[in-house]
Structures are given as structure tokens and as C-alpha cells.
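Your task:
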Amino acid sequence: MEHQNYSLSAQQTKLSCHLESICSGCQYLHLDYDEQVKIKIEQLQQLFDHSQIPYGPIEFLSAGLGGLRCRLDFSLQGGRLGLYGKGLHDIVDIDICAQLSPPLQNWLTEFRSYQWPVDKGSIRLRVSPHGKLGAWLDFANIDIKMILEEKNLLKKLQEKAFVEIGQRRKVPVWTGTEFKLHEPQLNVWFNTWMNTIPVDLYCHVASFTQPSLSANKIIAQTISKWVGSFQEPRLIEFGSGIGNLTLSALASAKTILACEIDALSLMGLEKTLEHLPESLDEYKKKLNIFRGDFQRKIVQDFKEFDGILANPPRSGLMNFLDPLENLSLLDRPQFFIYMSCFPESLVVDLGKLKNYGYKLKKCVIVDQFPQTTHYEVLTLLERGN
């Protein structure tokens, strides 16, 4: 895998930013990177200790100190585009951000040249793996109506980018005399990896994805490697989304049942399967999709699976783990792969899994949020005998 296994003895490095004193985005920007690494590892260790979860070495994988993001989420307020300032209720106008990949920084610079007649709203900018530009405008209905009727600004924006509008992700289409909002369209906005093979993922500009293509490669290839350490396992995945982890696990699994509640995400996964390269066509028959709320009601029998893969929201797995209690130890799946960007809920669920006979075998921090307090955690647990 192409990544940096970060060493605490590495040369100390900092990023600089002219907005450091007022922008709230990067809480650790004043620290050398080796100090950031140390803090994140120690924080996770303290959470494990507090929850009495035995653990071994914590591996730390980094894609770099900055310049990682291919997706930017920010706010529009009074003509300013950016994030809320430190201790302020006002938006800090961000023109340059060291967290953005060069293509995304160029897109932000272009986007900032447009004059928006909107006082307040949320915006997402994307650059796809193939360089396509995207913009999601999440404004109030009255502001959306005004932009559609004004016409010229939206025409100019669509010359550069694919545009989605509102919570329903509608696409503005010019009829020759006016704009009409059409149904959402699936496009390639992200990719994952099946071992060493990149796979395009279909979704919307507004869809949830990881923020960084380069960091996501580390995540996907780690998942593929862990699943591949077991003999053709049958997996059940909860919270599959658009299939980012699904496909990376599918590279090494015998079968996967992917469970997800969001219909739009599953539409993206289904289109991704339709457009898999011919060399990967054999994997389609290994994947089944189930739509349901895995946090509240589980209809699947865990005895039918060798492993569980989960990447839940911040709230964690909630009632998902309850069916394990009614199974004998040997009827429970052999292993559990749990990914989370919210370690506080992760350790709660790991405590429950410990009570069900699972032991933490591997733990990896993937630092896809350098210069901030946030990080991604990947854990591999195995059932005792």
C-alpha cells in the first residue's frame, strides 16, 4: 500500500496559514505534526483505558500534512465564504486553505469570483477523481427561486461545474427560456479500491463520502487486507452507503450482504455495480443489497455470517449489537471490522463487543483530518473460542 506509516522520530513539520488566528477549522495548526500524532494516539489510548478495553500497538497511517481534501463544505454569510471563526458567530472569509487539494483550491478560487445574491446558505464543492467540478447549493427555497429566475449566475456556474440544488439534490436544467429542476443525477464523484484496482463510485455531489481520495485509498486497502486474512468469509455490512467499504471488502470476501437505509445511496451503489470494469464483473454475483434501518431493527441471522463490517454514524451501532446476546459464543461471527470517526461512540460499542467475547486485534488511526482534533479509527476484532 502506498502510504506513510508515520514515525514519531520523523522530521518535525508544520503547515502555515494566514487565517490561523481567527479560523476554527484547524485546531492543531500551531503544533508540529509529530506532536499531533502523539496527541491523537494518546487520546485513543485514554479512551480505551477508561472503558477497560485491552489493546496492543496503535498503528498510525498518514496521507500527508495537508492538501488532502477533494470535498469542501462551508457556509455563505453576508458575502463571506468560509467557516465560523474562533469564538465567533460570524463566518471567516477563506480564500486559501492548506487542507485542500490543488484542484479543489483552484475550484474554490473560481467559485469565489461569483457574486451570490444570497445572505445565508451552505455550499459543497467537489472535484471528482477525473477532475470534474461539482457544486451543491443548499439555500432556502426563496433564495433558490430567486437564483433560478435571475438565470445568469446559474448559467455561468454551469459552464464550469455540475450543479445540485436543495436538500432533494435537484438538477437545474435550462429549457431555452427558463430553468427547471429535474430529478437527481448520479455521477462519479469518488472512488474506492479493490486491492490495487481503483473503482469509480456513483453518487451525488451532496452524498456522504470520505473527504479525501488519497486517505480513502489507505482505508480501502486496509479493509481489503483485513478481510483477506480470513478464508473467503461471508460478510454482512451495516451502513454501506454508496459502497466505499463494500467494494473494498468484496475484493476478498465470498459474499456480502450490504445493508443501508438511504435509498439515494443504494441507487449509487447499484449504478456502480452496473459500471464495474469487465475484469471485476465476477464480483457482482457475490453482493446482495438490503434496505433497512440497521440501528433499530435487525432481521438478519448473524449465524449465517463469518464477519461483520460496520461504519456507523456518530451515534454508533445502538441496537444493532443486541442479537449477538442471544447467540452462543461459537454461533457469533468470527470477526468484526468497525470503522469510526467518532472514537467516543466507538469505545462504547467495543465495550459491548468485549462482553460478547470479541478481542481487539488490530487498531489503525488513519489521519485524514491532519491539523485538526479529528481522525478515523479502523479496528479489527476477533471472537474468542
In short: The helical segments are 33-50, 102-111, 141-150, 152-158, 213-228, 244-250, 263-274, 343-355. The chain has eight helices and 19 strands. Confidence is low (pLDDT under 50) at residues 6-10. Residues 127 and 208 are 14 Å apart (CA to CA).
